[in-house]
Amino acid sequence: MVFLKKTKNIQWLIASAMIALTIALGYFTQQSEFPKIIVYYSLFFGLYIGAYISFENNILNHNRFCASSADSPLLGLGAGEGKCTKPIMVQYKIPGNNKLDKYIGLAILLRLILVFALPNLSNDVYRFIWDGRLLVQGHNPFDHLPVYYLENGNAVEGITRELFEAYGSKNFFTVYPPVAQAQFASACWLFPKSIYWSSVVMKLWLFLFELGSIFLIIKLLKHFKLPKKNVLLYALNPLIIFEITGNLHFEGAMVFFLLLAMWLLVKNKINLSAIAFALSICSKLLTLLFLPFLIKKIGWG
User: Fold this and answer.
1) Total-model pTM
2) CB contact at 8 A, 277 and 258
3) Are 248 and 206 in contact (CB under 8 A)?
4) Which helix (H) or strand (E) holds 60?
5) φ/ψ (deg, to 5) at 149
6) Cα–Cα–Cα angle for 218, 223, 225, nearest 5°?
């Protein structure tokens, strides 16, 4: 049918445009190019909204069919050949699950594309590598300010002036909790001398966390009998895609463990839920904001 073909074409256009914008923002846009960033994000948000609301328009009404038409629902029902039958109203429903699966696949693909891009809209990655290299060399990154390791007699392999100058939080102690630090260390242990490949390893961690988050959101939506398409509010959100997988921010780990805690809680697995909640806090301290709601939920307050 013409409408179905048009719908598929629109889906392909949305997907192609999102992929192009992901490549443009992830690989060819610098932090200093603010106008370009605004334009790309605006376009991406437009596509994001379009993809979501398209699920509201998945019913096609046909007012008139001819019996001789190949797509007529009246064929075989005694209608005369080559003649138009009496106009009727017929509804076609586009398969929603198939369409949703394609968009979820697109969301995963967009994240995978960004795994191999060096973060260019944030310089936090250099602090992550700084902390990771300290851990690999047996130093606690919480012990000293960064400048300490550049002073005479405190040199650490891989901790260089160039790396120090690359990130912005030079005058602050590290603020990244243990789960994030473990990911920094794993990346620097695997690639002790490569900033690029260390960033790829950290992004792979976040990519896996994001897959888990999307899966858990679908499970929670089903549990609470909410529309499954609502997963797209997270999965295709450009800020989430770029800030987590693109710019290497460990809210991705925080969100995954928080969702896991929620899922375990609704399954009445209180102890496991508490562990997942603690891991979320150990990824990013923002999770502490949800602690009063958790206490109320389990009846402690």
Assistant:
1) 0.85
2) yes
3) yes
4) strand 59-62
5) -80, -5
6) 90
pLDDT in tens, 186-219: 999 999 999 999 999 999 999 999 999 999 999 9
For residue 270, which amino acid is it? I
Residue pair 275/294 in contact (Cβ under 8 Å)? The answer is no
Q: What mean pLDDT comes out for the span 124-132?
A: 96
Structure tokens belonging to residue 290: 């949800």
Alpha helices per DSSP H over the chain:
2-27, 34-53, 96-115, 124-136, 161-166, 178-190, 195-223, 232-235, 238-240, 251-266, 270-281, 291-298
Token pair 């030079």 in the structure block, residue = 170
pLDDT surpassing 90 at residue 55: no
How far is residue 98's CA from residue 31's CA, in Å, rounded to a whole number? 37
- Tracing tokens 């096609």 back to the chain, one arrives at 60
> Which residue do the tokens 């190019």 mark?
33
Structure token digits, residue 101: 């699966």
Task: In whole angstroms, give the CA distance from residue 199 to residue 114.
Answer: 11
Task: List all residues 6 or more positions away from 26 whose beta carbon is below 8 Å from its beta carbon.
Answer: 113, 114, 117, 120, 242, 246
Give 137's DSSP letter. T
Residue, of 245 and 58, whose pLDDT is higher: 245
